[in-house]
Amino acid sequence: MIMRIFQVVTRPGKEAEFSKFFHEVAIPLMKGTEGIVDVFPGAARPESPRAFAFVMIWRDLDALKSFVGEDYTTAHVDPAEDALVEHRLIRHYDLVPG
Fold it and tell me: Has the keyword Oxidoreductase been applied to this entry (predicted)?
C-alpha cells in the first residue's frame, strides 16, 4: 500500500474559505475515491491556521495513478482549490504494516 501525505498552506485570508472547501468537497471526494483504503484529514490548528493535510492510504500505485495520472508526484487540484492555496507539499511512502 502507498501512503500519500498531501499538505497545503492557504493564501492569507483564505483560511475560512478553504476550510469550507476542505470539509464539504475534498474530504467527501477522497473518502469516496476508488482505490483509497483510508483517509485521515487534518484540519488547521490555532498555532497553524493556514495549514491543512490529508494522509491517504492507497491500495497500490496503480490505484493512485488511475486517480491522479502517471505523474503521481504532482498535486491533483480541484479548480476551486487552486485560488485558495499558496503552497502544496506531497510525499509518498510504502505503508509499513503495524
Answer: yes
